[in-house]
Design a protein that fits this description.
- This protein has about 500 residues and is an alpha/beta fold.
- The protein is built from 20 helices and 13 strands.
- A 13-stranded parallel sheet has the order 1-2-3-4-5-6-7-8-9-10-11-12-13.
- Helix 10 links the parallel strand 5 and strand 6.
- Helix 1 packs across helix 3, helix 4 packs parallel to helix 6 and helix 10 packs parallel to helix 11.
- The chain is globular, with a radius of gyration of 26 Å.
- The termini are far apart.
Amino acid sequence: MRSLRFISAKALVSHPQVAQQSLDGVAHNLYPLLFKASYLLEQAALIRVLLERWPLEEFRLSALLGPGSEAAEDLRDRTCRACLEACVQGLADHVLRAGGPRRLRVADLTGVRDVQVQRCPCGRALGRWGRTELLARTCCQLQGEAPAAQRPIQVVADLFVTDGNFEVVVQALRPAGSAPLRVHCVSFRADSLGPSQLLQVLRLAGPGELHRLEVVHNVRLHAGHVQELLAEVRFPQLASLTLPARAFDAPPAGTRSPHGEDPLLSSIAWELSQMSQLMELSVAFSTLTGKIPKLLGPLRTPLRTLDLANCSLNHTDMAFLADCAHATCLEVLDLSGHNLFSLFPSTFSRLLSRAARTLRVLTVEECGIEDRHVGMLILALSPCHELRELRFLGNLLSARALRRLFVALCELGRLRTVEFPVPKDCYPEGTAYPQDELAMSKFDQQKYDAIAEDLRAVLLRAGRGDVQVCTPLFGSFDPDIQETSNELGAFLLRAFKAALENFSRALEQMQ
């Protein structure tokens, strides 16, 4: 539903030259409506002028683009390149504009969502990495240019830093002179950086204000680096922490205490316990066999999101998870890569039973679930009436077993998304498991389509047409990987070349 005021704003911005000429006579409280209408119609030139003349103390992108009483459209998933570039250019024009003091104090550019398909007219997105580089370059260009008497504008941003934009981000965060735009980082993602680069940029990014930290993929950390990061930088407001694969591996020269204790793990656990806001922890692809009680036990607040995929958990770890305080608060849980029903059938069921009142998202991919386990899986899921998303790709299940499972899933009233594996009926007889990506893609598409249609029919007959089902063979869309794939590919090639050179030197020394 749109108000008459928004309809009028949309009509005005559809004639951008007239709108620009009329701005002097527009009431200040109409600027937000004009901005949203301009964003909707992709009037980039007008957006830039609106930001240049912004008459209010705050500009908060998420609030302006979100649904409101004047216009119900939610535009936060439009990371339109033209519009977002115009926003940053308009901020630059704003601080350079002559004539009187500025009212704008805070420009919050967070809250937009990166999606696979853009709904804006141009269809071109500006992802998180691109937004970071654009803002950083703009800040650098403005350093020393604005009048010193003016108070700097605080620009709240989500930063995505890689080796490709590291230098310009560091320059933006550490201005040599006056800086009319001061970046305040609330969410930080790092990829393809060295440990020293990561420490340097995080110290500059204002870790005291950071709420979310993602260190992923090609940042090669070991437990010594993690301990140094947490102990030296400090993150008092951190609510979400993601660490890369093998982040808990011992340093090359690491030693244990005489009693077999791991002093680095103890120190990391203590540092995590000092984060009173921590609610989300992702440590996937780290070997944590027998370490979960030591790592999670000291935490002061219960976790809501926990990703332990491919962490080689044992009975001690699973028993702790099932009985700890975190279990009753978990909303998102990933235990992929563990043979749950072969190794921990009763413990896993107890964990889901305790998490049932809060659990919304469950991922159990490549968990060795076979037809003989479906009854146990149904029993374990039966109390999870808050569950909204279930992902169990990579498990060896027949069409018959899937059908039985889908009948049971119809009873979970809040369920909206199911990601299920290609049934084993669709592969040639005798196919080996687990499969590589090439083998995984070689299945009978017609058989799959027929089985998938039958599973959807099961849902429809139960009145559950609201449940979306799919089989994303190669994972869900990741906008950050999509945006930086070329750089990350080059980084991997350099790493491979360095490994070959090290191997060659080692062979020469042996000879």
